[in-house]
Amino acid sequence: MAVIGIWRDDMKVDQDEVKAFVAEKGRKYVIDNVVSRCPTQALSLNDDNTLNVDNRNCVRCMHCINVMTKALSPGDDKGVTILMGGKRTLKIGDLMGTVIVPFMKLETEDDYERLKEIAEETIDFFAENALEHERTGEMIERIGLANFLEGIGLDVDPHMISEPRQSSYVRMDKWDEEAQKWFDRKAA
Ligand code: SF4
Predict the structure, then answer these.
(1) Which of 63, 66, 165 to mutate for ligand 1's pocket (most ligand atoms within 8 Å of CB)?
(2) How many domains does the chain have?
(3) Are both 62 and 119 inside the same structural domain?
(4) Residue in 11, 33, 58 to alter for ligand 1 test, most ligand atoms within 8 A of Cβ
(5) What is the CATH number of the domain that holds 118?
(6) Which of the listed residues 57, 73, 89 is the one where a domain comes to its end?
(7) Would the CB of 55 count as within 6 Å of ligand 1?
(8) Percent of the chain beyond pLDDT 90?
(9) pLDDT at 32 (0 to 100)
(10) On the chain, which terminus has fewer CB atoms closer than 10 Å, C or N?
């Protein structure tokens, strides 16, 4: 179970520090080492040496922030993403963890209780349903993510994807019905 720190509002950009960084390193360095290494092409360097961040497409990989430490920093609305099922080879080959909670706050006692609850639900479900020598990732592959989520009491969310922009777990049948459920949950 991986608990990864993340933010969901916009990245903070100090444009004066961006300009100072470009002045020190040069435009080519910034384009080759920051802009073109963004995995989702969410960055662009303007003619006046300021930086545009397309926050809706930023996948929070931290690369640009780690390079331009003075100019860029995470947003203020911080929380965690929880993944399960990452594993090395056993019954099937290596698996990356699967996002089961795209975002939750982890600040209050109640938040930590909720995290413990998710872990406990998972252990109970695993104890009852996993095959011998099977790990959580293999069990998710065998029974399907939707069944796993139902088993541990979590809702399916469009942010749960196998590979960004490639193979979404979200099914297109009953689309309108499922979309309405999502909008209702978001409104709540
Ligand atoms: S954090 Fe990663 S994905 Fe987001 S803008 Fe920076 S390099 Fe791109």
Answers:
(1) 63
(2) 2
(3) no
(4) 58
(5) 3.30.413.10
(6) 73
(7) no
(8) 77
(9) 97
(10) C
Q: Tokens in use for 90?
A: 């056993």
**Ligand 1 atom 4, closest CA:** 58
User: Is residue 166 predicted with pLDDT exceeding 70?
Assistant: no
- CA 143 from chain center: how many Å? 23
Among protein residues, the one whose CA lies closest to atom 6 of ligand 1 = 64
137: which 2 tokens?
């990732």
Structure tokens given for 9: 């509002």
Q: Quick one: 91 and 146 in the same domain?
A: yes
Dist CA 106 CA 77 (whole Å): 11
123 touches ligand 1 (CB under 6 Å): no
> What's the Cα-to-Cα distance from 62 to each of 13, 74, 123, rounded to whole Å?
13, 8, 31
Residues of the domain holding 35? 9-73
Q: Tell me the Cα Rg of the chain.
A: 20
Q: How confident is the model at residue 170 (pLDDT cuts 50, 70, 90)?
A: low
User: pTM here?
Assistant: 0.80
pLDDT band, very low/low/confident/very high, at 156 (cuts 50, 70, 90): confident
Decide whether any atom of ligand 1 lies within 6 Å of the 160 Cβ: no
Backbone torsions φ then ψ of 134, nearest 5 degrees: -85, 140
Asked whether residue 172 carries a pLDDT value surpassing 80, the answer given is no
